[in-house]
Task: inverse folding
């Protein structure tokens, strides 16, 4: 019996729904017989447990407490391939606040009520008693994992678990953001070089700026790093020929501020990118 299978059975005996995770901390894919819910599954896939086929299907919804299913021959090979053991927090009545880096942990300690914590590779999981809606990217480096989600099992943690507070529930309520919302107090930094433009057509530049905006807008975590890398990518292509205008820079800063970056963060990221490229 593999160590992961042994851990899964121990958790299942404590009524924790479990599932195997492959490299990258992601579930195993649906089997061919269950593509597009062909097997029948369960209504809306809103409850954990195995589907009607004998394999491991439907991502988080494959989590189960049934020891017969967990140790069945159909699962045996997958447990051998598994890299981690996952569990369904909502299925055991928990909410996990996943803090992905040091800044997120500092924010949590200043904002959220203390509860049981579990150290992760880069941060911490804060566990609260009570389920809620799962939401990724409620702020930089902070995800909510509970119903219709899964988390990596990293041990029971330390500290006293408390009831899910309203301040955590409120994190799942996001105000709608209008695309290209007007930024506050944007100061356009100095543009880069004035060399001859090699791009020949403005469509190339427009496509690059649009892709950069999209990359920033779609960031779900590590927004600071995403903004810097995006600025660096834009400047590495367009920074030496002088084709970037104030309008282009404002568009990039606007996308970043819409994701919660401050004007100072934007300016610092832009300046650091220029310095990195020797511009």
Result:
């Amino acid at each position: 019996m593999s160590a992961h299978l042994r851990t899964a059975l121990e958790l299942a005996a404590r009524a924790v729904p479990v599932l195997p995770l492959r490299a990258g901390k992601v579930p195993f894919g649906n089997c061919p017989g269950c593509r597009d819910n062909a097997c029948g599954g369960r209504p809306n896939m809103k409850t954990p447990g195995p589907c009607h086929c004998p394999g491991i299907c439907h991502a988080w919804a494959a989590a189960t407490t049934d020891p017969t299913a967990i140790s069945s021959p159909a699962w045996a090979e997958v447990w051998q391939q598994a890299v981690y053991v996952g569990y369904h927090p909502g299925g055991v009545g928990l909410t996990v606040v996943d803090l992905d880096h040091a800044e997120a942990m500092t924010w949590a300690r200043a904002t959220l009520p203390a509860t049981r914590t579990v150290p992760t590779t880069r941060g911490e999981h804060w566990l609260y008693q009570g389920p809620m809606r799962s939401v990724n990217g409620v702020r930089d480096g902070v995800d909510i994992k509970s119903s219709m989600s899964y988390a990596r099992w990293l041990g029971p943690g330390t500290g006293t678990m408390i009831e899910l507070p309203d301040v955590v529930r409120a994190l799942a309520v996001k105000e709608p953001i209008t695309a290209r919302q007007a930024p506050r107090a944007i100061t356009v930094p100095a543009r880069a070089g004035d060399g001859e433009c090699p791009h020949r057509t403005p469509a190339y530049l427009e496509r690059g700026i649009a892709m950069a905006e999209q990359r920033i807008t779609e960031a779900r975590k590590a927004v600071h790093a995403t903004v810097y890398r995006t600025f660096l990518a834009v400047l590495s292509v367009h920074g030496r020929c002088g084709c970037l205008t104030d309008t282009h820079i404002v568009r990039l800063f606007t996308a970043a501020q819409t994701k919660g970056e401050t004007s100072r963060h934007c300016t610092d990221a832009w300046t650091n990118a220029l310095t990195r490229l020797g511009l």
